[in-house]
Amino acid sequence: MPLITVDYTDRLADCFDRRGFGLALNRLAVKLIDAKPEACKTRFRRTEEAVVGADAETYALVAVEFEIFPGRSAQAKAALAEATVAALPEYLGADPGAVQAAVSVTETDRDSYRSAVFGG
Q1: Average pLDDT over all residues of the chain
Q2: Can you give the pTM of this predicted structure?
């Protein structure tokens, strides 16, 4: 834990350095919420379209969710969200156009979570 999910709109597919951003998110989790490096799991989901706001302007969207175990302070969770938003532009390429970013940090029940490694 944490389980990190990054949803991003199709428009960013060719310019978004997902691997670099995923590694950065894992490092931020280690630094800011004391996660173990080997426990950080980041996945990316490409979304065909997202609608942001009520105007005609089209934004790309990157939505990041950190699922973590309870016990971190509100300040630590806020620092993780802020650092994530601050890091994102570095991984979006030279001209991604208008991009909206959203980050949430949610807690998941430790008793019902399971993780395993198979093979290798």
Answers
A1: 94
A2: 0.93
